[in-house]
Fold this protein.
Amino acid sequence: MKDKIIAKATEMFLKLGFKSVTMDDIACEMCISKKTIYKFFSNKESLVEEATKMMHERIHLVIDEIVVKNYNAIQENFEIRRLFKEMFQTLDNSPVYQLKKHYPAIYNKILEFEIEACNEMFGKNIHKGIAEGLYRKEVDVEAYIKFYYILIFSINENTPFESEAIKLEMEALEYHTRALATPRGIEELEKQLQIHNN
């Protein structure tokens, strides 16, 4: 029952927003009593925390599924972006923006995990691209990881509308790739932009 409550709450938080969904709404949607929810969660904040953990795990599963397909480094980034767009494009409000605004303590906790996970993922992607001849050999990998996640997190933290965040993230990906790319990498980038901007 606990997992069912988390799954339903996650779905509702994403669709309607962390602030607007109440424990009553979740209970009503699941046809259970509010008391049943409180058996597993002491308050709404603890449920929000569990829901954000579930979202975090779901996102990283999706990323892992793409990475094992062994695309080239540039295509891999575009495939990840495409899947994020599919996952979140039906939302009006940005979940990250809402979380930061209404639950800053939970947001900061998630941010720690995300920075670590992104460091690893972006680093692997850059090393892969260098090995493939798509990214320049002389780049300062640590600096480029930092530049990219600062860009991505800044977009998500400060953009209230999800559609706008998705558009800006695509611009950031192009900007990041152009900064790293060799002439062969630029060719691959142009190919991916044609595929994903249609």
